[in-house]
Design goal:
single chain, 2 helices
Length: about 120
């Protein structure tokens, strides 16, 4: 009895416990198996990465102020952030990794960078 590759069905030569005929077939098989379960994570990470790049570009001096319109224009999504920091005074900062923002009013945000 000969074993067949789980991805392409070709005959497998080599070790008895081998499941794939090549690295390409092994990678293709695992990518297809994990595609659906990883899609949500991949999309969330892409949004976080985009938010981070926007904040980083608008805040080169570690602390600045920008408008809500400018953030939205660049594609910032206020639903995606990595943490919330509340000061003793009750001020709430939203962070995307080390880049943070604070709503000053409905139209402006203070941008800050957390020290490492």
């Amino acid at each position: 009895m000969t074993k067949q590759c789980l991805e392409c069905g070709e005959k497998i030569v080599g070790r008895i416990d081998k499941k794939f005929c090549s690295d390409a077939c092994r990678n293709a098989y695992n990518n297809n198996v994990n595609k659906d379960s990883k899609n949500l994570i991949r999309n969330t990470n892409n949004r976080l990465r985009k938010n981070y790049r926007i904040l980083e570009a608008l805040n080169p001096e570690q602390k600045t102020k920008t408008s809500r319109a400018k953030l939205i224009e660049k594609g910032f999504d206020f639903n995606y952030f990595t943490s919330i920091y509340t000061t003793k005074a009750g001020t709430v900062y939203y962070f995307v990794y080390d880049q943070g923002y604070l709503a000053i009013d409905n139209d402006f945000y203070a941008l800050v960078k957390r020290d490492s």
